Amino acid sequence: MIRKRAPRWQSAADRAQVAAELMEEAESLTASGIATPAEVKRSKLPPPLRIDFAPVPAALTEPPDGSAAVAAPSASSASSLPAEPAPPPPSPQVAAREAAARGDRDGALAVLDAALAAAPDDPLLLLERAAVHSASGRYGAARQDLERVLRADPAHVEALVGIGVLLSRRGLWMEAVPHLRRAVALQPGYAGAWCQLGESLNRLDHLGEACAAYERAVELEPRNPRALYGLGIVLDRLKRPEDATHMYRRSREAAGR
Known about the structure:
Elements: H1 12-32, H2 37-43, H3 58-61, H4 75-79, H5 92-101, H6 105-118, H7 123-135, H8 139-152, H9 157-169, H10 173-186, H11 191-203, H12 207-220, H13 225-237, H14 241-255
Helix pairs in contact: 5-6, 5-7, 6-7, 7-8, 7-9, 8-9, 9-10, 9-11, 10-11, 11-12, 11-13, 12-13, 13-14
């Protein structure tokens, strides 16, 4: 029988030191360790308890005096609230335009007449009434309103253009041109005034000036169908058919046709 040779450190003192270290290690693992599921199963420990917390009754959370409770407003209290202010009535210009859009031009004039009785020199009201008169074929009355605006403000561009348009509609092209020239001099970026000037000059056979006026209108508003078409007419008269055809095509495209 062969006896095992004991390790050199297994003296009584060594064994006592090793035992002490193992006991210390075991105590530290026991105090700080958390059992894994495998360890629980292995040691047949009961599973951890699951605790469902019931909601806390509202009576326990609200102040005893009920100050936190807010009652819904009753129908009687809601009716006692101040009503929202009514929207302001439309301005006379807006009311007149709405009446004219319905085809009630007399009603539009009645609104503007009443407003002008209180403010006889208001340029906006005079311009609006001139537009209604013009749409109704009352060119004389429209011109009187526009001239009233110009007496108060000789540089009023809208009134100048308005008179130029009225004179053009009556075929008074020569009289229309000075008003339109003054309008574009005062406001060079007014494409509509340039377009009307081009039409008047074309009617007077001033083709070079008419072409320049229409070109300026197109430069300001490249998709203005009226200016494009008028320029096409002048180019046709200047014996430039290809350029005229191009302008007619652009006019149709701008008008969506």
